[in-house]
Amino acid sequence: MLSIAQSSNYFHFVEWSPSESGPKVLKFKKIKHNVDYFNKNLLNDLISDFNPVSKEESNSLTYSIDSNYVGLSSFAVDPKINLSEYISWYEKNMLNNYFLDTFDLFYYPINDTNVMVISINKKIKNNLVKSSIDLGYKMMNFTVDIFSANQMVTQMYCENKIQNYLLWKIDKNNHHYFLYIKNNKFQNLIKVRYSNKIVDYLVNVGVNENEKILRNIESVLKGENGSTDKIFLYQTKIDTKDISNILNKNLDNLVLMDPSSFISMKGANKNKFKFLAYNENGISLRGVDV
What we know:
The protein has helices spanning about 40-50, 85-95, 95-100, 120-135, 145-155, 210-220, 240-245, 260-265; strands spanning about 1-5, 10-15, 25-30, 60-65, 70-75, 105-110, 115-120, 140-145, 165-170, 175-180, 185-195, 200-205, 230-235, 255. By secondary structure, it is an alpha/beta fold. The protein folds into 3 domains: about 1-65 and about 125-145, ATPase, nucleotide binding domain (Nucleotidyltransferase, domain 5, 2-Layer Sandwich), CATH 3.30.420; about 70-120; about 145-285, no CATH class. The longest helix has 13 residues, at about 120-135. It is globular. The mean pLDDT is about 90.
């Protein structure tokens, strides 16, 4: 398996093969590269730079894209109306022909009354899929950064039936992302800017009128214990000042996500923050015993 996760202009690679004791990492590497998804040679250039150890063991591919390169939204639906009919109405009345011609849309029901929509430029998706085929890879999963990291949560931490949690991603420019899971089901994706103790809400995708989780997020950002069972924390930015300050508050239900603990990355014990961005390679572990 070859897993690629993009975060800004960095690409995190993990190449692994299955073994009796779980995934056996053959190679991993972080590559800084110009992001031009309209360049048909991007994937070829990236994989050539990575130089996989064994393509025979790594001909399956998963890809996680930075959420800034996709559109994320949601809309309310009437549960009495067939969802496919509602989607047809939504595309006809809420979107224009240019948008429909330019973007592929993926609909994910959250509950009976809310649907999440992920939109991606068709050229970006087609370039990646076609390039993977041309390079001899089978694209197993294509997903978005924090949703891929959520797969890491379910694989590593939810064996004890944790059902309600926040997944917290710290990004650059004072941006924070929160994925709220309730009863093992996605509820909200929220993006905020937190600076000088002021919370600015930038994106709120998912269940409407979820004031409780918004208050919970504000409490967590201020260093207080949240109301969920657990808070799983990681970051993709390089500077570690913020995450160190958060950990120093010793929140009771906070868990630092350390992917090196089970994929045996060399040097993991020297710097607990070094490998946090590799959580976004988590989608490659779907269906795998770890």
